[in-house]
Design a protein that fits this description.
alpha+beta, four-stranded antiparallel sheet, 4 strands, 42% helix
Length: 130
């Protein structure tokens, strides 16, 4: 068995397997992308904020930035804007009035590939060890 540990081809093969395993782990998504132009297109004009949150599955959101709501959650002005972001920086912006959605838009992340990989690795580590 010691002779195997002294062979260069053994360590090269181990190295290739580790690189392939790590690359596959980083590049294969854990879950489907919730924040995308496709998801934004599914949001219909006139939907309530609850319907939008249900479509976005906001259990994976970083948070919802809301504006123009009073303390009871009722619109204080003519319209309000809510922004949902994921951990990679993608955002969906939705404007509401008293009848529902009046405007929507998707803003893709401007993170570099390296930063996205770091975020994905951190997400995978959280998924493995909660």
């Amino acid at each position: 068995m010691r002779w195997l540990l002294k062979r260069w081809w053994f360590w090269t093969e181990i190295g290739f397997m580790l690189v392939a395993l790590c690359a596959g782990y980083v590049l294969i998504p854990v879950e489907r992308a919730i924040f995308s132009q496709e998801t934004c297109d599914k949001i219909q004009l006139g939907w309530s904020e609850d319907q939008v949150e249900e479509e976005l599955l906001c259990g994976n959101c970083e948070g919802n930035a809301r504006s123009d709501y009073d303390k009871d959650g009722v619109l204080a002005n003519k319209y309000a804007v809510s922004i949902w972001r994921n951990d990679e920086g993608d955002a969906i912006r939705v404007a509401f009035d008293r009848t529902g959605v009046i405007e929507k838009g998707f803003t893709p992340s401007n993170l570099s590939l390296l930063m996205r990989m770091k975020v994905r690795i951190a997400r995978r580590i959280r998924a493995l060890w909660p």
